[in-house]
Amino acid sequence: MTYLKELRATLQKTATNFIDCCNEHTVDAILSLRTDTCKHTHLPSSLGIGTYNKAEYGAFYGRFADMMKDCSCRIADDKEMVVDVESRKVVMHVKNKGSTPLGEYENEYMWILTMTEDGKMIQEIVEFCDSAKAIELMKKQQAQTSA
């Protein structure tokens, strides 16, 4: 019983650390808790973003990192992490808000993190975001680079 309690606390800590890494807005930080084989899947699939391995996600995230420096991720106010110790999964409802060079940005996500056996590293991330907000940001970014 103590082992499961400790693993639960470790899973929660890793998930919290992941949010902290997101708030550093660097590729190194965003990749730091991922295993070498970590897969990151973006949903809904209608966004056309798909699944990235660790290196691919670093390149993808690198396109947005600098402009997100004044944004902050946090667990939604009225929500808690859902922790499934047996499957080593943590589900979080996360909000991101702040200003970017393209204007104010606000989005919300459901993240499903699957951790290693010891709960200290992330093996898989499934990210479901507000697709309208994501598309809006991508269009603004494309317009800026086309100008």
Automatic annotation (TrEMBL):
InterPro entries: Fungal_Meroterpenoid_Isomerase, NTF2-like_dom_sf, SnoaL-like. SUPFAM superfamilies: NTF2-like. Residues 16-122 form the SnoaL-like domain. PANTHER family: AUSTINOID BIOSYNTHESIS CLUSTERS PROTEIN F-RELATED, AUSTINOL SYNTHESIS PROTEIN F-RELATED. This is SnoaL-like domain-containing protein. It comes from Bionectria ochroleuca.
